[in-house]
Amino acid sequence: MLSSSNSHTNQQQQPANNDAAQPNLFPATGGTRWGILADGGFKILLGIAYVIACVPISLALGVEIILTVATGMAVLSVGVAEIAYANVRTSRSYLLSLGIYDGGWLLVSAVAAVSFFSGGPKLGSLWLGYQAIAAIVLTAFLLSRVGQVHRGEGHSKA
């Protein structure tokens, strides 16, 4: 009877540890981690390319040079943040945030390309503007404590 009561108490305490109910609360490992690092590295290179080639990019897209430089700096910053926080963020928070960022980029790129190739206005400001704003938002998210792995008491929770 005493052991029955004891097991009932243990069952009540188990739901407080939601690790089993919430997968991917640990830092990214293996291929996912390499993907995050590669994505961050790509953004660093892209940001540098925007800054170095700001004049021809700006002329081709019909935008002010300052927008291209600002976008380059923002994209570079988010790339650095992705790499710096690869061991701190949960794999779920990374995949969700990068999926939203990249999905928005694909959508804006498609709209800008359709407009350009159909003879409509150049939407370079929209395309670069999205990248700058989304990079700033993603950097802020990565720097925040939301979705970070919390270490302690022998297990990790987000």
E-strand count = 2
Radius of gyration: 22 Å
Q: Provide the residue-averaged pLDDT.
A: 79
What is the strand arrangement across the widest sheet? 1-2
SSE topology:
Blueprint: H1 2-13, H2 30-52, H3 54-61, H4 65-84, H5 91-117, H6 124-143, E1 150-152, E2 155-157
Antiparallel strand pairs: 1-2
Helix pairs in contact: 2-4, 3-4, 4-6, 5-6
Task: Kindly describe this structure.
The protein has one domain. The protein has helices spanning about 1-15, 30-50, 55-60, 65-85, 90-115, 125-145; strands at about 150, 155. The protein contains 6 helices and 2 strands; from the N terminus they run ααααααββ. The radius of gyration is 22 Å and the shape is globular. It is mostly helical. Helices cover about 70% and strands about 5% of the residues. α5 (about 90-115) runs antiparallel to α6.
Briefly summarize what is shown.
With 158 residues, the chain is mainly alpha-helical. 70% of the residues lie in helices and 4% in strands.
